[in-house]
Structures are given as structure tokens and as C-alpha cells.
Design a protein that fits this description.
A three-stranded parallel β-sheet has the order 1-2-3. It has a two-stranded parallel sheet with strand order 4-5. Helix 8 crosses helix 9. The chain is built from 14 helices and five strands. The longest helix has 30 residues. Helix 9 links the parallel strand 4 and strand 5. It has two domains: 212 residues, Rossmann fold; 81 residues, Tyrosyl-Transfer RNA Synthetase (Orthogonal Bundle). The two termini are 21 Å apart. The protein binds tryptophanyl-5'AMP. Tryptophanyl-5'AMP binds next to strand 1, helix 1 and helix 8.
Length: 335
Amino acid sequence: MTNKEIVLSGIRPTGNLHLGNYFGAVKNFVKMQETNTCFFFIADYHSLTTHPNPRDLQSNVKQVLVEYLAVGLDPEKATLYLQSDLPETAELYLFLNMNAYMGELERVTTFKEKARQQPNNINAGLLTYPTLMAADIIIHKADKVPVGKDQEQNLEMTRTFARRFNNMYGTEFFPIPTAYNFGEQLVKIPGLDGSGKMGKSEGEGNAIFLNDDPKKLHKKVMRAVTDSGPTEMNQEKPEAIQNLFSLLKIVSKPDVVVYFNDQYNNCNIRYGDLKKQLAEDMITFTEPFREKIAGLSSNDDYLNRVMNIGAEKARESARKTIAEVRQIIGFRKYY
Ligand code: TYM
């Protein structure tokens, strides 16, 4: 037994990883694997809410695994696995759903957003997305969950479901997990389209992917939304401009940020120059990832090995939890 804290997080296989995923979540995964007992998974059950075809699903799962490894996740340090390799998660999801109420599930912002975006596909999986997420987290009795700002409400739901289970059975079986970013606020990385966050489904050109080739990346940045420039000294930045500065802050050197900030404040800013610099710094930042992605993509044997080892380790932990949960609930013990 160790006293290390248990860390868990996951990403849906719905496309390549972008800078939002990286700075909101994966960067912390890489740091946390050094000192904690970590489980990082690919949320393929969750991706079924949008009905991917089997071939796309498989290639997207592979892509996330490749990118997990390319950014520095180490299968020797962290347990890397596929959600669907752990049917225990589905069993716990079923139990949690019995104590999850329509009213609270319907109020979740991401559910309301998705229902608006896909009015012809408001399926039960979308509604119960937070209970599946709770199952993912508590199946390993996780303490900390490194995620971006957009997952905060889902994490609140997990805390509610874990507490509810504990109260119902008069136990402290499940720890109450927290959304984690090294004591800092959770992060929201903006996109390039002028408003909101960087996301896979926010439209072409909004997201910079770790695997974007330099030419494409450059083009996307040069097309980012701007305005006609400040008209007064030290004017407050509108959202689209603030977003560019936020992106500059994460990939560029501090003196570069200071330089453009001064230019803005003095009304001398040339957005073309800022974007050029931003594109260059993004290309430099993503370069090592791109090289590793290319190398790993052709090594299916290795990728399969990583998945198999991860599945075994994750199942060992999940089986233990589920056996105890079944006993607490009052089911027959057959393990
Ligand atoms: P997903 O796949 O949408 O995103 C994966 C992670 O990336 C973070 N993220 C961002 N952070 C900052 N700025 C952004 N623009 C940005 N875009 C994405 C997300 O916050 C997330 O941490 N429901 C989850 C997957 C999941 C999960 C879990 C996570 C399923 N079960 C259990 C943690 C624990 C999701 O759809 O993330």
C-alpha cells in the first residue's frame, strides 16, 4: 500500500488534442505522474453520445493514445487505459444513475448546450454524462482530477454523487474528489474565433492542434479575429484581442508579451506582427510533439502493448472497488 494521492482524468476521442486540452489538462497529467498514483484514460464510452462510426472511433482512440505518449505520459509511471476496457465503470454508472435525478441532470450547462447544438440527438447518454464521469472518477477512488474550467460543473456533480452514495449507505467509502490545477484557478484557453474557448467542435480555424503542420497553423493564426485597433492609450482590450494576448502568454517569452502589450497600450500595435509572432511561437512549441506523434503513429505493436498493460492495471483497481460497492449495496458476493 502507498499513501500517494490518486489522480484521474480523461479525454474524449473526438479529434486531435489542441492547445486547450494541453494547457487545461494534459500538461498537468505529465507533471502529476511523477508523484502520484495516476490513471489517465481515453473516454470512448462518452464519445458514443455523438454516434461515431467504428472506423473513426478506432482512429480517434489511437490518435489520443499517440498524443498522450507524445506529450510525455509514461506508461511506466501512469496507468493509461481505454474506458471501454473497464466494464466495471459501466456497472458503477448504472448504480449511480439510480440516485441521479432528472432535475439536476437537466440543469447541467453542458447538457443544455449540447441539447441546443444537436436537437435531433438529445439521448439519455447526454443527460447522464455526469454520472458516467462520476463513475470514471470514483471507480479508482480518485482524490484529484486535473481538468480545464469547462469541466468544473461536472466535477461538482461527481462530488454530489459520491457524497450521496456515502450518505445513503452510512459509509465514507468514496473520497470526495476535487478538480485540480496545482492550487491555481482552473484554466480556460480561448480559441481564435474571437469568443469563448478553444474546442474541437467550435468550428474550423478556432483550435490549434498539437499535430497541425506549421503552414496550416500559421494560416489559422493569421486568420484569427481582430478589430481595427485601439483608439485610446491604455484602452481595455476587447475579448478577441484579449484572447490573442492570452495565447501569446502561454507560448511566448514574457518579454514578447510585454512588447506587444506596450504596443497596444501606445496604440502602435500591428496585429499582423503580433499574429506572426504568435504563429512562430506556437510552431516552435508544438514542434517536438509533432515529431514524436509521427514516430509513434506507425508503432501499433507498442501502442497495443501500452493499452493492454493499462487495461490490466486499471481493471485490478476497478474490480476491487466494484466488489466492495456490490457488498455495500447488498448484492450477493461472488468475487
Ligand atoms: P474533453 O475531451 O472535452 O477535454 C479534455 C480536457 O481538456 C480540457 N479542455 C480545456 N481546458 C482549457 N481550455 C480549453 N479551451 C479546453 N478545452 C478542453 C477539458 O477541461 C478536459 O480536462 N468529460 C471530459 C472527459 C472525461 C473526464 C472524465 C475528465 C470523461 N470522464 C473523468 C475527467 C474525469 C471531456 O469531455 O473532456
